[in-house]
Design a protein that fits this description.
Elements lengths: L1 E4 H6 L1 H9 L4 E5 L2 E6 L7 H10 L12 H10 L7 H14 L2
Parallel strand pairs: 1-2
Antiparallel strand pairs: 2-3
Length: 100
Amino acid sequence: MKSVKIGELKNKLSGYLREVRRGEEILIQDRDIPVAKIIPYVPDSIEEQHRILIATGQMTPPKSTEPREEFLKRFRSRPAPKIPGRLAIQAILDEREEGY
């Protein structure tokens, strides 16, 4: 864990925050006495994680606001597609050849 005095922290705050984003913890000292610690933020919930991923462009929000349970119920009520077995097997083999 790094230790930094308040004056240095104020002068180089952006750099220290970059280190915290990478997982580093920073101990803040006032006249050599520890007074605070900056630690990486960890979201409390899945929803909060999603908001962060969306805000950073790592995830796209869903286009529908329909609750997941309702979507699954509607999806499962649809008839299953009828595909001949040989076509399904060939599709799987072709996909394996492509490396997916």
